[in-house]
Amino acid sequence: MSGATPTRTPAPAWLRPATLADALAARAAHPDWLVVAGGTDVMVGSTRRPEPPGVLDLFGLAELSAITEGPDGLCVGAGATYAALLRHPTVRDRFPCLHEAAREVGALQIQARGTLGGNVQTSSPVGDTLPPLLALDAEVEVASAARGPRRVPYAAWITSYRKTALATDELLVAVHLPWPAPGTRQRWRKVGTRKAQAISKVMLAATARLEGDGPGRPGTIAHARVALGAVADRPVRLPTVEALLVGASPDPALAERVREAVRAAITPITDVRSTADYRREVAANLVARFVLDLAAPALPGADPGAGGAP
Amino acid sequence: MIGLGERVGASPPRVDGAAKVTGAARYVDDLQPPGCLVGRTVRSRVAHGVLRALERDPGFDWSDVTFVTAADVPGRNVVTLIEDDQPVLVPVGGTIRHHDEAVALVAAPTKEKAEAARAAVRLVVDPLPAIFTLDDALRAEVKLHGQDNVFKRFEVTRGDDVERALAACDVVVEGVYETGAQEQMYIEPQGMLAAWEGDTCHVTGSLQCPYYVHKALKVTLGLPAERVVITQAVTGGGFGGKEEYPSMIGAHAALLARAAGRPVKVVYERDEDVAATTKRHPSRVRHRLGLAKDGRMLAADVDVLFDGGAYATLTQVVLSRGVLHAAGPYRIPTVRIVGRALATNHPPHGAFRGFGAPQTTFAYERQTAKAARALGMDPVALRRLNLYRDGDVTATGQTLRGSVAAHPTLDRVVAQLEQPPPAGRRTLPQAPHVKRGRGVATYFHGSGFTGSGEERLKGQATVAVAADGVLEVRAGSTDMGQGATTTFAQIAATALDVHVSQVRVAQPSTDKVPDSGPTVASRTCMIVGGLVDQAARAVRSKLEAFAAEVGLAADDPARGDLPALARRWAAARGELAETHTYRPPAGIRWDDQTYRGDAYPVFGWAACAVDVAVDTDTWEVVVERCVHAVDVGKAINPTIVQGQIDGGTVQALGWALWESVQYREGKVLNDRMTNCIIPTAIEAPELETLLVEEPYAHGPFGAKGVGEIPMDGPGAAVASAVEDALGVAMDELPLLPEVVHRRVRAGRAGGAA
Questions:
Q1: ipTM for the assembly
Q2: pLDDT tens for residues A224-280?
Q3: Domain range annotation of chain B
Q4: pTM (two decimals)
Q5: Hey, is A293 helix, strand or coil?
């Protein structure tokens, strides 16, 4: 009998560039290689996919990891982990719906490895941080060695199911979040197959700003964004619902109209995680709840009725 | 001498704990003998069909691949259990009866090569029409088993004609209750390692019942008993899922190792494990319960249907336990229970903690809740009126003689509910769209094998002075995480009056330990633990007599030092082994033909109350409180016992609210941990587990079984609580939010059931 038995075939080529310039050069040289950041999605599927010819490992690349504040908004490096988002006070204070979404992704281990850029590039219809990017009017910044950087509005980023506007020589560099107008309320709700470490069945990210509100007076909605996840082949905004909201006063009658409008706006599917019926009804309920809660006075620094779990 | 903190009734640390925490424990996948090959299984991709041919891709490099088919089985091509109907590998010309059924095996030096080889085998199959529902099985247009697709039928009757008795009742409550399949989801997937030494086959792996595998492999390999050796590796959870299936994987590994002339390890990936191995039987129970106006239960008519899957496996025994528990722990003078297990083209359903009782408990406890509402009675008061007391007679005619704790467990739950709920629990906000409700359940679970099973088994256990002078427990019962090793060590140490650390529990291996019977049926502590206690006492008296023989004075402290005496014995006389064989207590009678008599040596008893909050935006159910009182006779190690109850309770809540195995055309759709959902710590409420000790005269120190009973009742309590919250009947499990939503909408449309 022979001695120790090899249990693995040789690993694929693996590059870990030290700078963004090196990374872009490698990307241009090896467009068929798998680009990996935290690897949290890639590893789950690794036993069912053929091994890639090579791996471009961007995890921890400093130029991609920063979260920086600018005059127009916040720039989140594509390599920023969920844990980094959670630690960042500006994300917590100004973008609570993204903060909440990051908090509900996977477990602590996943949050320590997984990156916003990974979520954006994987572009799964159930990616937890994606509806917030729609609701926050985010822009995606990509770059290539040949053509330099360019920006794409997040709403135009996804071209079809799990496909994005990224060219084969480009890398995702950052996500830009414009500062929300003062007083903008944000809502995040994830309905998953359980409360933690779960894939979403329905997600809501919404923002709204009221004008003329005061004690006992809800005012009217001046600005609204309503985005849902897991109800289509990509996260979707609901313009018909937003149109109903803007200029209206948040009251039960509006909530009912909104409920109907959400039902009409989406055609979710039945799959292994949930049913079309359930998704449609729950999506409608979540948006209606957001509207009803807008009528409640805003708590300082808190999202009104952010959800049940403490 | 044993300290107070180690005796039976105290909770010394688990003897296997340090090795598991430090990673030193060796599970089957940690074992890597030189030259070991990786085995993989070629599986069917249809649920029913005739296997016409197995074609190997001629372009693939087969030079270092071992390929095994049914033609390579040296003995009989069956997994021997109750009926020999399940092949180890489907032969060419034979019938595939479920999706992911094993048809061939490959082994190669690497996982990648083995995986590629598996993919290079093509099956030529003529598909046949298949059955996936109980109704199609009953219609029997497709015949999978006999003329009627009925694997087994049991009937239990007591008292008058049940129709006449129901007609005389003031109130008759009727319902149909359905439950789904449940995956055991042990943390360690199934796996076995086989290696031949000459003409002896050694198989080591993750398993519950070494002697089941032994019995099966003798037949498959055509070998005498002494040439098959089965050893349990450290096992990461079983829950019944490693009761029968390890015989299949063990046979596969043995066949590959025989053909390859090298050791072969077959360890399942999670998806393969979920897709191919056994699960809890899906069920449909129709239940009619007749009561007097004052709440006395007078008659019950229960019709039980289980989906057995493609082969008989253990289904008839599971059905038997379901039937024997189907009338509940209630005095009911007239009872008829008919149970049938049906053949379908699902992968075989099999053993899972509770073993048929959770399904019928769900039905009778939902019925009890509905009866209380129909009568306008408090559900606790209705139960108190009907729950068994000592001396009552069960549906099978068994007179309960002692250790009946139906009332004490319910009383403990009611008292606990008057206490404030635990701090730090997860709750939903108080809001108009959040509805709340409470459900209660009371139930029982027979400890040990059904009927005359224990008498037939004649389980054995040995306590020995081993050749090296160490006091050793030898039992075929396995520790799969539930704490059997510590429990045995504590029982033996207490009986021997030595420290727990001075007792060694032998690794179960069929060439070293006797057949204690399988590690199932809430029998390990009560039956085998009792044998360990008796054998340990026998060893102790022999060693004490030996002390006198070698001339130690009566007041010499060395006479009390049993470990030292054991070493002296070993040096002078070699091994000392005391083996005890189970004998049922006097007066136990059971008739397998009429299904009458003492169904179990004794029962455990339990009561559970669950408070839920339902978010009507999402139809998610949060268990805000779960009070669970379980009678265990005597807690040998209270921490382990509470762990068993806590774990069983969460598993039951999982079955009730989250765990759903979905099939399409007989194929499991959600075969991964990301979509085959089980609860996590966040879903688990702050459990209020209460131990009740109503000692059993024939159990070690009074102990009874505890492994299964926590699984039986919380499901019904949850459903009744959700029904209480929403006013709509909740008669199926799991109550996924989608199911609650569907039932509420149907209830609104058609009026509450």
A1: 0.94
A2: 999 999 999 999 999 999 999 999 999 999 999 999 999 999 999 999 999 999 999
A3: 4-26+459-581, 34-127+197-262, 283-450+594-749
A4: 0.96
A5: helix
Of the candidates B358, B405, B413, the residue with the CA atom closest to the CA atom of residue B380: B413
From B308, B275, B304, select the one nearest B288 (Cα to Cα).
B304
Phi and psi torsions of B190, nearest 5°: -65, 145
Judged on CB neighbours under 10 Å (0-12, 13-18, 19+), B133 is middle
Instruction: Report residue A44's pLDDT band, with 50, 70 and 90 as the boundaries.
Output: confident
What residues of chain B, 109 to 148, have a C-beta less than 8 Å from chain A? 109-113
* Domain B34-127+197-262 homologous superfamily, CATH: Aldehyde oxidase/xanthine dehydrogenase, a/b hammerhead (3.90.1170.50)
pLDDT tens digits for range B218-253: 999 999 999 999 999 999 999 999 999 999 999 999
Find chain A residues with C-beta within 8 A of B109's C-beta.
5-6
Q: Which CATH number fits domain B283-450+594-749: 1.10.10.1760, 3.40.50.1370, 3.10.180.10, 3.30.365.10?
A: 3.30.365.10
3-state secondary structure B271-324: HHHHHHCCCCCCEEEEEEEEECCCCCEEEEEEEEEEEEECCCCCHHHHHHHHHH
DSSP reduced 3-state for B268: coil
Burial of B713 (0-12, 13-18, 19+ CB in 10 A): buried
pLDDT tens digits, one per residue of B652-670: 999 999 999 999 999 999 9
* Phi, psi torsion values for B192, nearest 5 degrees: -140, 150
DSSP A16: -
Both tokens of residue B2? 């044993």
CATH architecture of the domain B4-26+459-581 equals: 2-Layer Sandwich (3.30)
> Is residue B427 exposed (0-12), middle (13-18) or buried (19+ Cβ within 10 Å)?
middle
Q: Alpha-carbon distance B699 to B413, whole Å?
A: 25
pLDDT tens, position by position, A130-158: 999 999 999 999 999 999 999 999 999 99
Residue ranges of chain A whose CB lies within 8 Å of a chain B CB: 1-9, 44, 47, 191, 193-199, 202, 272-275, 277-278, 281-282, 285-286, 289, 305, 308-310
Query: Are the beta carbons of A273 and B675 separated by less than 8 Å?
Result: yes
Query: Whole-angstrom Cα distance, residue B55 to residue B62?
Result: 13
Check for a shared fold between B34-127+197-262 and B283-450+594-749. no
Question: Once rounded to an integer, what is the mean pLDDT over residues B662-685?
Answer: 95
Cis peptide before B734 (omega within 30 of 0): yes
**Record: contact A5-B34, CB cut-off 8 A:** yes
**Cα-trace Rg, chain B:** 26
Burial of B514: CB neighbours in 10 Å, binned 0-12, 13-18, 19+: buried
Task: Tell me how many degrees the CA angle A19-A20-A21 measures, rounded to the nearest 5.
Answer: 90
Q: Cβ distance A182 to A207 under 8 Å?
A: no
E strand segments, B429-506: 434-447, 460-465, 471-475, 503-505
Residue pointed to by tokens 């690993």: A11
Residue pair B592/B576 in contact by the 8 Å Cβ criterion: no
Kindly state whether B444 is in contact with chain A, defined as any CB-CB distance less than 8 angstroms: no
Nearest chain A CA: its distance from B675 CA (Å): 7
